Amino acid sequence: MNLYFRLIWLFLWRVRHCNRIGFLDVSRIEYRALPSDCDINMHLTNSRYPAFMDLARTYMLAEMGLLKRFLKLKWMPIVNAAEFTYIRDIKPLQKFTIESRVVGWDDKYFYIDQRFVSERGLHCIVHVRGVFVCNRKQVPIIELVREAGYEGDAPELSPEVQKWKAFLQLKKERNT
Is 137 in a helix, a strand, or coil? Predict the structure, then answer.
């Protein structure tokens, strides 16, 4: 339930008072791990990470100046795949920041790197692959990048993302 309040707070306050960043810049949003976000092991439960990441990606779009435009176009983001690496836990009541950035794209998908950090250091690294859809059809990546106002070449994907991308393709081939 507290994520609904955080979502409302995001739309009513944070989006209206956010910084402006470029398409490839890092977006940062801070949260605190409430007791209701934690599990019996007294740390942020694994199921909360993706929920916080959804909020952080929405905030990133707002900071880029794209959220209102994409909503007007009825473009809805869809996560296709995510890969998590947990490094250290986030304790109850601990403040943490989610750093989100677009790291590249290919012919079909865009790739985002999201990191959970605090004064204690890095807690989790997540790679996310996704698309935008409109009327049940995928928005072409070239159109998405053009609408974002980005005119440069696509950044080269990091070796980690390239290997993850190849692994996802292998999984798809072996299971169809």
Answer: strand
Please give the single-letter amino acid code of residue 51.
A
Determine the Cα–Cα distance for residues 157 and 113; give it in Å rounded to an integer: 11
Task: Please list the rounded mean pLDDT of every run of 10 residues in the chain (176 residues).
Answer: 74 79 96 94 95 95 92 95 97 98 96 98 98 96 94 93 96 92
pLDDT of residue 157: 96
Tokens of 159: 């070796």
Alpha-carbon distance 21 to 6, whole Å?
22
Within 13 Å of residue 150, how many CA atoms lie on the same side as its CB? Answer: 21
For the packed helices 2-9 and 48-64, what is the interaxial angle rounded to 10 degrees? Answer: 10
As to burial, measured by CB atoms within 10 angstroms (0-12 exposed, 13-18 middle, 19+ buried), residue 174 is exposed
